[in-house]
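Tutorial handout. Part one gives the primary structure; part two gives the three-dimensional structure as tokens.
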Amino acid sequence: MPSTPVASVLFVCVHNAGRSQMAAGFLAHLAGDRVEVRSAGSLPADEVNPAAVEAMKEIGVDIADARPKVLTTEAVQASDYVITMGCGDACPVFPGKRYLDWALDDPAGQGVEAVRPIRDAIKARVEELVAEIDARP
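Part two.
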């Protein structure tokens, strides 16, 4: 494995408490140190959604220590991929970045039962992202 990451990815959603945290957890779990992983929110919550933490724990990915962070211009500039999940126009755009928008239901206020399908959809997209990153020249 390379000692420096081959790519950096920033996941962005409004509260940085559910979707973006689950995506960051999956990417760190699946790609290890090959990819630098960031997540942030345009209006970060006080804590990560407990149902998201529980849903991830069920499949062996621990995001319990994750904390919501505010979206900064610097985080976007430092990332090769910027993946938004409902943050709309709050995310600054810079040339040379790969921007993706993943339309996913918001798990805010939902129980674990409702979060599981969102988690599974995120996992599938992260697996596709890892394959794309690994295929880069």
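Part three, for discussion. The helical segments are 19-31, 50-58, 73-77, 112-134. The chain has a mean pLDDT of 92.
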